[in-house]
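Exercise 3.2. Students should predict the tertiary structure of the chain below and write it as structure tokens, then compare their answer with the key that follows.

Predict this chain's 3D structure.
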Amino acid sequence: MVILGVADGPSAAAAVVVDDALVALSTESLRVDPTSVDALPWRAIDDALTIAGVSLDQVDVVAVAGRFSPLLAVRRRPWLSALVAAPFSLAMDAQVAWQAFLRVSGFGAVEADRAAEWVEGRLNVHGITPERVLMVDAHRALAEAVYRCASEDDVLIVGLQPMGDGTATAVHRGQGGQLDRLSTDPAVSSLHTHLARVTSALGLGGPVSPRRLGALAARGTPDPVLLGLLASQMSSEGTALARWAGMSSVRADDPLYARIRSLSPEDAAASIHQNLTEAVTSLVRRLIRLHGVPKVALVGEVFEDPRIVARIAELDGVTKVFALPASTAETLAIGAATSQAGLGPALRDLHLGADVDGESVERVLAASGLSAVRTATLPTRLAAGVAVARVRGRGGPGPRALGARCVLVRADDAVAIARARKALRVPEDEEALIITIPTPNEGAIEGFEALRPTLALGAVAPKVDDVFRRRYAAVIPKDGRVWMMRVEKEQEPGLHSVVQALVRASGCGAVAALPLPDNGTVSDVAARLVAGDLTAAQLGPFWVDAGGRR
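Answer key:
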């Protein structure tokens, strides 16, 4: 049985399950007109099937995450394109109200059936003729993904997704391989519109992602006046978030948004983040007490922020916290596929992307005029303060592909990190992922035991002690939290050996992982080497120096 899971939207993804295993994941940014009927993530779909080694005609089931996807609805009805608007408009309120109406009425099933028929038609044109096409509730897909990939059974799964098929909050329990929904927010909450609007008001070119919001907040100071204004809109009310205020115009001189615009992005972000964190942690604390389950899995757009994940782990009564490092699109695609496969819970290898083989690397290097050698010089160059691109093996989910697609710099070298940021044009509010291995001088990590499974995947920003802060001051923001991936030899032998060799060479037990520009492909990195943005790279089995021209 071949199951294709698809997540639709500006950031889209596709995942493939073959028989009883999740085997492929691919992402795509849809840079085409969002109202186009051809805007399904075809490249992600084709790439995922290629990675899985199956052809178009072998797909048995296609599961699409989201029963009433707003973007899908617009593409099915081009006349609605004029209503696709920025967060500061009534169009967002109308969209929220419409999804909530579909969820609680019989029209939701009709809409989902019509959407499935439309998707099937587009798939057929593309050459995919599955036996079934179905739309999977967004919160169900999120819960399936985090439960099927979790390292623990019997977990309380809390999902917070602003556009989650008519509700922002859903609570599930995963136990013995079964996933049961315990509750959903009975009414539309302020989370639907609030987060998009306040992060847009930061003036950074549209809504800011939760992870970037946390990184900005870590460098700012909360403003008491703004905190008071935010508290009137976002708070926890028992086991739900504050109610949605209803359709109302958003004026440019609204005191809340005016105050956000009057502050620096860092201080405004710190206020927004503190308010959101207090609301979310209060909600999760009450849910844990209500259901009596001390192990928690967190999923949805809000929990893409590794700082909020860490704060949940610090709550009394929490013994384990699990979160995926994947984007919401990746998580939805994984969940849509696994929801139809009946997989049991177990932490699987999440390196699900395309492999980087030596033959393809040699072809790219030859075309670029670069030469390569098969030597393991990466730790030596890192010890010398050189930033090294790493593109090898199968990529994983998340912005650094579990360390398989990134630029590595030793984490205690502020000059080298600044130089790499400048060369790659990485903004200051794009936080580095710190990859560490267990070393005697690493210091203590707050809530370590509860965070152990999540630390292994780089989905959390715990608070570290003075030992770590003194050693790696170059990567410690104002709030003392570090976005961290702690590598064990059994799980990530390649990365572990690199950092271990760096420890022997320099005493440094951590590297800062910066994002690769573009898509992080071998061709992209080769172009950066030729342009001089990078000086060294580990590509597949090869070592490449920018000066090593043919």
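Discussion points: The domain at 191-323 is CATH 3.30.420.40 (Nucleotidyltransferase; domain 5). The chain has three domains: 2-148+329-338, 191-323, 358-549.
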